[in-house]
Design goal:
Distance between the termini of chain B: 57 Å
Helix content of chain A: 25-40%
Helix content of chain B: 25-40%
Largest sheet of chain A: 7 strands, parallel
Mean pLDDT of chain A: 86
Strand content of chain B: 15-25%
Radius of gyration of chain B: 19 Å
Mean pLDDT of chain B: 91
Oligomer: heterodimer
Shape of chain B: globular
Number of helices of chain A: 8
Chain lengths: 236, 251
């Protein structure tokens, strides 16, 4: 029997954003609004150093899978494992799979062309943040702004404008990860996304870094003679 | 879409009983929400902000111009159609007042940003009576100055037809002038307040009990007579405050 035929499609959402921007809170709140709809939801959390947030999902009875990249580039780690994340979701009979990816270096974007791409930014993090985070914002379908309840209306409007300048196409929403305001509508829009059967052959929205120098292989010493591979200098 | 009226179709209170059938607020009206802390004023403001369509715990429905907004309209309006001012909000940006206002004006598509920015600062200074300079950093503003600047900015630069205000009393701001600014700008204003002066300055008040809208009371002419007294008290308090702060003996 062809395994493909028996698989059921899953709504896949990639959620990216700087550390402490409120990704986990927003995802938790959004999934908590599902009760009436009976959808089964799970989360895969990609982290660089440790995964403290998985307990928060477990406490809420949300199936969670943690991946700690450790020494490996977190983006490479993400893309080499994303297919098996979907397999896990299918085996767990999930309707919605949220892939949360934290603390990337801002150069990359963990977003796939085949699934809904969400970027979470924190309004308290400074007016230039939208210009600093790069492709994870630029290539997102939806931008969620958190902590907007702590700043002025004028600053919210400027923040929104700045986000739109970087990404004119994305839907921009203010969501409160503490009170849950806006999370119901957010969850609805995630469930409206086109579900996917497989991520085999899926494409990244942005290329991964060309990190092939000696430091990628574990070199720790400073010095020209230690630098092998693709090296870029500051040009001073 | 020009929004000239907003209707809240009643849902259920915290015990599951039906609340008032409907409350409609027109452009230029000030609707005050009254009730003890925890009665559900902020939740009602939340329902308005999210254009609730029987999809919040209160099961309320919000109509614009008497009609249900379609899903497209709801998504399109999101985050843009309501301006909010609350006691918890602060300016957090490390910028000078003038520079920030120019940036805000630009983001709102206002042609002469500099002129507009000065207009907002002048207006804020009239509201708070404790003038600040255009070159003051935003984060240096006092509570009263910040609140006055938020009000002036929202009234002059704000494009949203609806303004939600959650508790702005005790900030040393000229309340009458502030509300007049919004109603002159033809905004639909919702105001959650415990301040008798603000309550009587409103067009009408909705009494919130146990999470539900339980009563609508239009401010009568007889009630407005109390305004004279309250305004005199307010002015007296502002005057004493000014003197005490300036080191002028009051006796």
């Amino acid at each position: 029997m062809n395994a493909q035929e028996t698989r059921h499609p899953v709504h896949v959402v990639t959620v990216a954003g700087p550390p402490s921007s409120g990704k986990t809170s927003v995802i938790l709140r959004a999934i908590q609004t599902r009760e009436n709809q009976g959808a089964s939801c799970g989360v895969v959390k990609f982290d660089c150093l440790n995964s403290l947030d998985t307990a928060r999902y477990q406490e809420q009875g949300i199936p969670v899978l943690a991946g700690v990249a450790g020494n490996i580039c977190p983006d490479h780690y993400f893309v080499t494992n994303v297919e098996s994340c979907l397999d896990w979701a299918v085996q767990s009979h999930l309707d919605l799979l949220v892939i949360e990816s934290a603390g990337l270096c801002n150069r990359c974007s963990p977003h796939l062309k085949e699934s809904l791409a969400v970027c979470v930014l924190d309004c308290l993090s400074g007016i230039d943040t939208p210009l600093k985070v790069g492709p994870m914002l630029k290539l997102a379908d939806m931008v969620i702004l958190t902590k907007g309840d702590m700043i002025s209306q004028a600053e919210r409007e400027v923040y929104r404008y700045r986000v739109r300048k970087v990404n004119p196409k994305a839907e921009v929403r203010f969501v409160n990860g503490i009170s849950g305001q806006g999370c119901h509508r957010l969850f609805e829009s995630w469930m409206d996304s086109e579900p996917v059967l497989t991520l085999q052959g899926a494409r990244l929205r942005f290329t991964m870094p060309t990190a092939v120098c000696s430091y990628c292989l574990g070199e720790t010493r400073v010095g020209k003679e230690r630098q092998i591979g693709i090296v870029k200098t500051l040009g001073t | 879409m020009q929004i000239t009226s907003l209707t809240i179709q009643g849902g259920l209170d915290k015990s599951g009983n039906a609340e008032l059938e409907a409350v409609t607020v027109q452009s230029g009206d000030i609707c005050c929400l009254v009730g003890p802390t925890g009665s559900g004023k902020s939740r009602l403001l939340g329902d308005i902000e999210w254009l609730a369509q029987e999809d919040t715990p209160s099961r309320r429905t919000v109509l614009l111009n008497g009609e249900k907004p379609g899903r497209g309209a709801r998504e399109g309006l999101q985050g843009k159609w309501v301006a909010q001012i609350s006691q918890n909000m602060n300016f957090v940006l490390d910028m000078l007042a003038l520079d920030f206002l120019e940036m805000h004006a630009e983001s709102q598509g206002i042609v002469d940003a500099k002129e507009g920015a000065h207009k907002v600062i002048d207006c804020a200074n009239e509201l708070c009576g404790e003038p600040f300079d255009a070159q003051t950093p935003l984060t240096f503003l006092s509570g009263g100055q910040s609140r006055a600047l938020m009000i002036a900015d929202t009234a002059i630069f704000g494009k949203s037809p609806v303004v939600l205000i959650d508790e702005i009393e005790n900030a040393g701001v000229d309340k009458l002038a502030a509300l007049k600014l919004f109603s002159d700008a033809q905004k639909i204003v919702f105001l959650a307040s415990h301040d008798p002066l603000l309550i009587l300055l409103s067009t009408f008040r909705v009494v919130i009990r146990n999470g539900g809208m339980s009563q609508v009371i239009r401010t009568s002419e007889a009630e407005k007579q109390f305004l004279v007294e309250l305004q005199a008290m307010d002015a007296r308090q502002m005057e004493l405050r000014r003197k005490l702060r300036a080191g002028i003996p009051i006796v």
